[in-house]
Amino acid sequence: xxxxxxxxxxxxxxxxxxxxxxxxxxxxxxxxxxxxxxxxxxxxxxxxxxxxxxxxxxxxxxxxxxxxxxxxxxxxxxxxxxxxxxxxxxxxxxxxxxxxxxxxxxxxxxxxxxxxxxxxxxxxxxxxxxxxxxxxxxxxxxxxxxxxxxxxxxxxxxxxxxxxxx
Length: 166
Prior knowledge:
The chain has 166 residues and is of the alpha+beta class. Helix content is 37%, strand content 19%. It contains 5 helices and 5 strands; from the N terminus they run ααααβββββα. Strand 1 and strand 2 (86-92) form a beta hairpin. The chain starts with 16 loop residues before the first helix and ends with a helix. 13% of the residues are buried.
């Protein structure tokens, strides 16, 4: 194979070969990580937005993001803002962060908008993303919710029937 590269002077992204050649990651995950690394810091990107802007569907993108999370390239932190809404801060890394402690990024909130607090020595190549939409529920979480609702409805119906008999 012959590789032909242009020599761009603007509008390019420098990426390490490590994650691009990581065979434990699917090709979709590697491409998604390269795509996410091309954005500027604090860009808003979520699964729904990525799916509308690209040919892959929400499920494929969600699966690739889970894969990146499992391998330490993507870290999500959820918190409640001052208005009580759930917010998510997503950090995207160009190297796996499995040994990185979760405590060195402190999320604070000012005027109801999420912001990043003081941190100690974030590695270079870190991308922070603020998402305003909560993470989609997985099939397992939906099933648990459905079973819990069904159990509540069943017990409520049984109590109503018992009240009528007595």
